[in-house]
Amino acid sequence: MTTATPAAPAAARRPAPRLRTPRVPSARPRRSTLLTVLTAIVLVYSLIPLVWLLINATKTQGDLFSSFGLWFGDSFALWDNVATTLTYDDGVFVRWLANTVLYVVVGAGGATFLAILGGYALAKFDFPGKRGVFAVVIGAVAVPGTALAVPTFLMFSQMGLTNTPWAVIIPSLISPFGLYLMWTFAAEAIPTELLEAARIDGAGEFRTFFRVSLPLLAPGIVTVLLFTMVATWNNYFLPLIMLRDSSWYPLTLGLNAWNAQAATAGGEAIFNLVITGSLLTIVPLVVAFLLLQRFWQSGLAAGSVKE
Amino acid sequence: MARSTPWRRALTATLTAGALAVPLAACSGGADAPADSGEATADAASALEEGGEITVWAWDPTLESVAKDFEAEHPNVTVNLENVGTGNDQYTALQNAIAAGDGVPDVAQIEFYALPQFALSDALTDLTAYGADQLDGTFTPGPWGAVTQGGGVHALPTDSGPMALFYNKRVFDKYDIEVPTTWDEYVEAARKLHEADPKAYLTNDVGDAGFTTSLIWQAGGRPYQVDGTDVTIDFTDAGSQQFADTWQTMIDDELVAPVGSWSDEWYQGLSDGSIASLVIGAWMRGNLESSVPDASGDWAVAPMPQWEDGGQATAENGGSSLAVPAASENADLAWAFLEYATVGDGIATRVDEGAFPATTAELEDPEFREQEFEYFGGQKVNEVLADSASQVAEGWQYLPFQVYANSIFNDTVGQAYVSGTTLTDGLAAWQEQSATFGNDQGFAVNQ
After folding, report:
1. What is the pLDDT of residues B423-445, one digit of tens each?
2. Number of domains composing chain A
3. How far apart are CA B9 and CA B1, in angstroms?
4. What are the structural domains, with CATH classification, of chain B?
5. CATH number for the domain including A180?
6. What is the ipTM score, two decimals?
7. pLDDT digits (tens, 9 = 90+) for A59-70
8. What residues in B contact A66, CB-CB < 8 Å?
9. Interchain contact B41–A (C-beta under 8 A)
10. Which residue in the set B102, B267, B286 is minimally distant from A160, CB to CB?
């Protein structure tokens, strides 16, 4: 059936005497000045901190105090700063980076894996207590992690887990929002008929899951992975409470410790390293977003339209 | 010394409140006298032989070398030095660990103002058992008074903060300002500078509990009286009022820069001369050298301005100590390290790295006093600072819940800096809210 052609002739056939200019059915969208201005403001608002960070990472400690914040100083010390950041205090920054990567790979990776399994099961299997699970998950989405940090600390210290990487990894493994997202995504993205067909063809549940469902879930997986990655990468409060040993710090805590040096008797203010360190800290996240952008967008939009 | 953001203060307050309630219930009001005090030092020696591992929570950067040297001297001993945060952050962690009964360090750095809070709740080992009470006279009066407040020896001082006037000589010379010797002259100097250059201020202040209490201390005010769990808070005494009157002028006439200490703006002001002086603890010498390198040659040090013409009283600002938490599982070894760092060879290492000592021997040492500092234009800075240490007014006490009290300073006294409230009203509000908190915690405040 061809449905595309009739529209154009119909428009051409009809005379349009009241229009001063012929209507051009082009792909050019309508523009609203107000919206453009608003978008521009939002864009500037979100980019200024980044620009500030980039500019100030090129300054020495002295230049930071003597030059205008949103323009370059007398010297260009970016590479010096990066080198010093990586080597300061026996290269502790690299250690913090490695810790953060560990927490992200195990924590966010594990959280994504659990969310996939759980979301798929909730979407595609019927079992008693499903509504109860739904209520718990929705409830858990509403509880901010910060509120649970102190009880978690007390529980973990009873179990002797505080001040170990497990104290950061285990709570990171749970992502109610990721589970909910996977659930709705799986419900939309995997036709039940497909699963039935796979079963009729003799595939076991595991084979069906890994060979049929998982590829269909890819955009959703990337979305959840990005969510949990960002959450774990930026995690501050939980490690702040759990960790005492600076050799297990993630970057967020480490940078804060460096920043606190300026407020310490006998300490050395190293604002230039804090700024350069912050820049280095966000680079992996920016890269991850740029690379996974397409999946992320389609993942977010999935389920928004009922077909 | 450590400043913190409002939300962090709120958090600390909540956690502190929770943690304090527990130990106080068991507080017997006095330190238990251990039966085996005679054998304690021998225990420390055998603990060193035997070796083991201790965990030290401290943010003082000079302790790193001290720990290394200590390990080199005692090969069987491992010292895990951990920087858990500066000031409040560390106290929150320490309170949490004590409350949880797990992960408590063997040695903890605690500032003088926070010490009574831990000492009175029996969270610290009384070092009298190790003969620490014999060390009276080893330390200058200010720090020694702080670690022995309320009886017993709760900690040993590592560094002290006898106050002095750090001033930017270049700015003073440029505007022909004489170095003030009294607080009245200080106010006039502030006026003269600000009139000559509206962008420059003699000093900064947006409300700082440590600074306020130190100036009241110097003026002879003793607003806090602590006897066991009986506490009196009274900011109406003459010293407190004298401070409030003088400093009110500074605020009313907008002679203080509205910049918080330790912020990057503050460092900027110290660097470019728009904050031209600080009346602050002796440790500022090291901070200027390491963190404001561009102003090298500009700064000089003079004695603290006085409340009376020809007076000689000073006060302490900041300064900290090392304590052995009662929950330490290796107290003997902890004491051995503590002794090494505060009265043993550790002092020399720390002084070499820029710390300002709390021990009289070092402060009177000619080599220490006559050291010329290039940063300060060759001035023998330590002479001024060491003299200040010997002139610290006696009898000052901090509250056993000073960490909390300081956390609400900005909501009470701090209002005087941003609204029409006066310092006197602010101090009254601070007194009232501190008293309410103290009573809630089981102290008898102003009763």
Report:
1. 999 999 999 999 999 999 999 99
2. 1
3. 14
4. 6-161+319-377 (3.40.190.10), 162-316+396-445 (3.40.190.10)
5. 1.10.3720.10
6. 0.70
7. 988 788 778 888
8. 268, 271-272, 294
9. no
10. B102
